[in-house]
Write a structure and sequence with these properties.
heterodimer, A: 283 residues, alpha/beta, eight-stranded parallel beta barrel, two-stranded antiparallel sheet, 14 strands, 19% strand, B: 59 residues, alpha+beta, three-stranded antiparallel sheet, 3 helices
Chain lengths: 283, 59
């Protein structure tokens, strides 16, 4: 995808990353944690223009869990509150055993999409999220078996090589869908030049989603809109609306990027349009 | 064995929660959920190896 896609008025898919697994209500009280809170946040994000919700699961005290039952409770709440939004489960999980990383794929029905981290990233001072190729392949295989579209999470430039390696090892359905992640630490350094390099370096025919951490969320989402990609916003990646002001909700962040897309003349995809663009199985 | 600096509480300072959450008595702040896995030595994590706050206070 490119600036030509922008000029061609192709719809932009907005993903709302509602809660994440790293920070919780200690960072912002507006971050949803319980299934009911996540369900209501998903519905509000959908009303604001999100076609996809990216979901993690939490224990009742806000801590991470990979429990299938907890993901099921979240999905049930999302379907109860939202209309037609696409459910995307995270399979990310620093230090969690490989078996646990598979558990988000096993809800009934399976999520239409799931994240697939393309390689290692550093956490804090003494911790690495490994994401070995063996784990990537096994997660991909279960996704393929269950009809789940992988969202390839590209945390840095080397992970684009890993996409090509995965394409050598496995037969991914078109279009290949990669989320390009920009920010501090292990992430690709957030500069416009790096963004352009990243989108130019994707495999032929791939489509991309744009994710900027923290203060980079809005400018990188705007670049994603301009260069024919898709965008992800939400409290998982950024808890502020502007410097020193916490975002009131995930929906507020979605509303803002939808306004940007509207101002730039790019239509925002409905969930049905997003399913067609991404080649999802539907539910 | 969990980190000796870990406690669970529902309120501290300006923060108040409906359920008790992980609190680091060394850093005197509530703990991010992913850090709570280190505090609790879940999975293969170990607070003595992986937590810079514990290491700093243990020295």
């Amino acid at each position: 995808m490119s600036y030509d896609s922008f000029l061609a008025d192709e719809p932009v898919i907005v993903t709302a990353a509602l809660t994440g697994g790293v920070h919780g209500k200690e960072a912002t009280p507006n971050l949803p944690e319980s299934p009911e809170e996540i369900g209501r946040a998903a519905a509000a994000a959908e009303r604001a223009g999100a076609a996809v919700v990216h979901l993690h699961a939490r224990r009742p005290n806000g801590e991470r869990t990979f429990d299938t039952g907890r993901f099921q409770a979240i999905d049930d709440a999302v379907r109860r509150h939202a209309d037609d939004v696409i459910i995307q489960h995270s399979t990310g999980g620093t230090a969690a055993p490989d078996a646990d990383r598979h558990r988000p794929l096993r809800t009934d029905p399976a999520p239409e999409m799931a994240s697939l981290d393309m390689g290692p990233l550093n956490r804090y001072a003494h911790l690495t999220s490994e994401n070995t190729r063996g784990l990537v392949d096994s997660l991909y295989d279960e996704m393929h078996e269950r009809g789940i579209k992988p969202e390839l999470e590209v945390f840095n430039d080397g992970h684009r090589n890993e996409i090509r390696g995965l394409l050598d090892r496995r037969d991914l359905a078109d279009p290949v869908y990669a989320t390009l992640i920009f920010g501090p630490g292990t992430l690709t350094r957030p500069t416009p030049r790096n963004f352009l390099t990243a989108i130019d370096d994707l495999p032929e025919g791939a489509t991309f989603n744009t994710l900027g951490f923290g203060r980079h969320q809005l400018p990188f989402a705007t670049m994603g809109v301009l260069f024919g990609g898709h965008v992800r916003v939400g409290l998982e990646d950024n808890v502020y609306y502007r410097r020193g002001e916490l975002a009131a909700s995930n929906a507020q962040l979605v509303e803002r990027v939808v306004r940007v897309a509207n101002e730039l003349g790019r239509p925002v995809a409905t969930p049905a349009e997003a399913r067609a663009i991404l080649g999802l199985r539907g539910v | 064995m969990s980190c000796p600096y870990l406690s669970y509480r529902a309120a501290a300072g300006d923060h108040e929660f409906d359920t008790e959450r992980a609190y680091c008595t060394a850093a005197e702040r509530f703990v991010e959920p992913m850090r709570a896995d280190i505090c609790n030595d879940r999975y293969d994590l170990d607070h003595e190896r992986h937590c810079e706050i514990y290491r700093e206070h243990a020295e």
